[in-house]
Amino acid sequence: MSSLSTHILDTVSGRPAAGVSFRLFQEDAVLFEGVTDHDGRCPALREIPLERGTYRLEFEIGAYFRAGGHVLSDPPFLDVVPIVFGLGEGTHAHVPLLAAPYGYSTYRGS
Asked: Which of 1, 31, 59, 70 has a 20 to 30 Å separation from 52 between CA atoms?
């Protein structure tokens, strides 16, 4: 089995993004729903055993920035950020998200 972790950073404030709701999918099935902690992480995600395959993380980034007092366009330019990635057998993948109201980036972390 494999494992997964994520870390969300708010590039506007330069701090971890606490309170971001997100979901993990495999195809259309929701495997996990969580919210980031004070450090922009969700340790419980790492406990979900995952098989080799393709997965999708969806981050509710629009709601996070609205809750933080940012005025967003209507509709927001970025509301839900999806990241589709592949996971091998017996590996750990770390999927960081660096987010702002008008852009984001990700990479395979360690």
From this structure: 59
Q: Is the peptide bond before 75 cis (omega within 30 degrees of 0)?
A: yes
Place of tokens 């509301």: 79
Entry pTM: 0.95
The tens digit of pLDDT for each residue in 14-73 reads 999 999 999 999 999 999 999 999 999 999 999 999 999 999 999 999 999 999 999 999
Q: Take residue 43 and report the two structure tokens written for it.
A: 């340790």
Long-range contacts of 81-86 (CB under 8 A, 24+ apart): 82/56, 82/57, 82/58, 83/56, 83/57, 83/58, 83/59, 84/54, 84/55, 84/56, 85/54, 85/55, 85/56, 85/57, 86/53, 86/54, 86/55
